[in-house]
Amino acid sequence: MNILKTALLSSAMLAVAAATSAGAADLAVAPYTKAPPVSPAYDWSGFYVGVFGGAGFTNHDISNFGGSANYGGSGGTAGGAIGANWQLGSLVLGVEADGAWASSRSNDAFALGPNDATTLRSTASVRARAGWAIDRFLVFFTGGWAHGGLRHTDTDPVLGTDSFTTSRSGWIAGGGLDYAFTPQLIGTFDYRYYDFGSFGRDGTPLTPNGQLPYRVSATASTVTVGLAYKFGGPVIARD
């Protein structure tokens, strides 16, 4: 009986030793798995300069003692901008200034007697920006002060032409989408609406070419694409 017990105990000890040895072997050959790399998130903070171009659309209401009329037109626009962004989490705040050449021309086709034509020749603005970043995409809204340079021409086939330039201050609002192609190169698409108020030609009692005094309101819209180069603001590790 003692011999049988000894044999059983020896068998059990051998089985445990074999199992332990097999487990150790499995642990020894388990492959090393490297942790996945941290994905970088784009940082929008930094100063930038850029250029843009696109289409412009103008709208005018003209009125005098005899009535009123509306007219509008379109043309091109191109310019440059400088600005800075500060990123706070996903919120991006910024400021931007720009100036542009414009060529949107329109006329009222003799609606009030003479032919009145208005050309938007230049625009400028200083704006605040606020947006929401999704890595390399930035959806933003913008608004602030705007300036417009305009030329107005009033032509009477009999009494001649009266032409003058005017500079108007107003406001601007809009929005758009930026995309960072690289840490420095940013593409942008935006829409802007300008309101330059109104201007007019007084008379004593008539204007220089013998017309009734009049006033013209001036608004414009632009749709542009552009490229900007950003200084500073390295990519940061995503949590």
Task: Give a verbal description of the structure.
Helices cover 12% and strands 66% of the residues. The protein is mainly beta. It has a single domain (47-234), classed as Beta Barrel (Porin), CATH 2.40.160. The strands form 2 sheets. The chain has an 8-stranded antiparallel β-barrel with strand order 2-3-4-5-6-7-8-9. A two-stranded antiparallel ribbon has the order 1-10. A hairpin with a 3-residue loop joins strand 6 and strand 7. It is elongated. The two termini are 68 Å apart. The relative contact order is 0.19.
Brief overview, please?
This protein is mostly beta strands and 239 residues long. It has one helix at 2-29; strands spanning 40-41, 46-64, 67-88, 91-107, 115-134, 137-156, 160-180, 185-201, 214-231, 236-237.
Radius of gyration: 35 Å
Estimated share of beta-strand residues: over 45%
Query: Gap between N and C termini, in Å?
Result: 68 Å
- Unreliable stretches covering 5 or more consecutive residues: 1-9, 12-19, 22-29, 235-239
Average pLDDT works out at: 88
Count of individual domains: 1
Number of strands: 10
Give the biggest beta sheet. 8 strands, antiparallel, barrel
Shape: elongated
Judged by helices, strands and strand pairing, the structural class is mainly beta
How many DSSP helices?
A: 1
